[in-house]
Amino acid sequence: MSKFKKQKKGLPPISTASLPDIVFMLLFFFMVSTTMRETELKIKQPTLPQAHNVSKFEHKNLVSTVYIGKSLDPNNEGDVIQLNDKISRVSDIKTFIFNNREKLLEDEIPFMTTLFKADVNAKVGTIADIKRNLRDIDALKISYAAVEKQD
Amino acid sequence: MSRRVVPEINAGSMADIAFLLLIFFLVATTMEVDGGIARKLPQKQPPNQIPPPKLKEKNVLQIAINRKDQLLVEGAQRVAIKDLKQITIDFIDNGGGVGNKDVGTCDYCKGAKSPSSSDHPNKAVISLKSDRGTSYGAFIAIHDAVGQAYTELRNRVSKERYGKSYEALIKQQKSDKSQKLKDKIRAIKALYPEIISEVEPTGN
To answer: Which of A44, A92, B71, B203 is close enough to A88 for a disulfide, judged by CB 3.0 to 4.6 Å?
Structure first.
């Protein structure tokens, strides 16, 4: 009489064998499309200004970034400068650029750019001081970091 | 004889390992690419340098910004930042050097040809003067307005000559590295060269 087998109760378990494949795919996507965070900020995260004509950098190793913004210490009102991963003074700029130059080839040096990542509320005076130092050592290419504005 | 069976390796924890790696990369990397407004600083002059020849007043557009982020154009006119782009365009594109042999006529300019404004786009200088107390945001807004003015003029002249805007040519350069395209871009840049001079900020 048991011609018709009793139907199994419940759903079969979903196979998770392809889960690693999916996750690996995501992993490779993120590995390829992102870049490593180089420095840890020792100042308050600067809010970058917005602009229309923003040009992107093609060679990241030619860019030296100078961060300018408010200190994490609420008692310090003025602007602070961060080079590499420590708070610095304007007079340290020259050493910073010289150190970066040493990592490059001789003929790459004229293409080096100094990128100012400054907060919208930072003062132009601080940047002017840095620019004067840059002129002293012939690091003439500069760039003001900004976020692309769409309208 | 008992048949040896190789047991299947359990791959269940593979997903966990991959997730761990994925999360590590999510945390340790950033997505955005840095971008900025590119400018060039003037070379340092030796102290006994002969001062450069004075520019004609009418060929210089003086933009000043004070520590309250208020704008002053040509020393007299208070303007809002949104009007600065049009003022700059009118100034650069004036082409007032008609009939003047030293400068030559600007045949692609569509400006008012006023004798009191700039002679030729390659003579027109934008001078930016700021105060030490000016905020960086306002400073960049001016740079952006001036940059936009140049881009708009370059777009126009590029459309007339090559049927394509200047920005489109720049975008095309990413995939097309030909010399022809490079020459086109260079030609347009030469028609409207960006001459921006930053004056040492005032105040302390």
So the answer is: A92
Contact B148, B83 (CB under 8 A): no
Chain B residue at shortest CA distance from A21: B15
DSSP letters, A95-113, are HHHHHHHHTS-GGGGGG-E
Contact B41 A146 (CB under 8 A): no
Contact yes or no for B131 and A124 at CB 8 A: yes
Q: Is pLDDT at A129 greater than 80 in this prediction?
A: yes
Q: Where exactly are the structural domains of chain B?
A: 58-149+194-202
Count CB neighbours of A22 within 10 A: 12
CA distance B72 to B70: 7
Specify which residues B104 forms β-bridges with: none
Partner-chain contact A123 B19, CB within 8 Å:
no
Residue B33 has pLDDT above 80, yes or no: no
Nearest residue to B121 (alpha-carbon basis) of B148, B86, B96? B96
**Separation CA A62–CA A109 (nearest Å):** 8
Identity of residue A54: V
**Is B18 near chain A, with CB under 8 Å?**
yes
Phi, psi angles (nearest 5°) of residue A64: -110, 125
Separation of alpha carbons A28 and B185, rounded Å: 37
- Please, where are the H alpha helices in B36-191? 84-92, 136-162, 166-172, 179-191
Contact A55 B143 (CB under 8 A): no
Question: Quick one: tokens of B67?
Answer: 């520590």
Q: What's the rounded Cα separation, in Å, for the pair B47 and A56?
A: 36
pLDDT tens digits along B186-204: 888 888 888 888 888 887 6
Tell me, which fold does domain A50-148 have in CATH?
Nucleotidyltransferase; domain 5 (3.30.420)
Structure ipTM over 0.85, yes or no: no
Q: What's the gap in Å between the CA of A100 and the closest CA on chain B?
A: 18
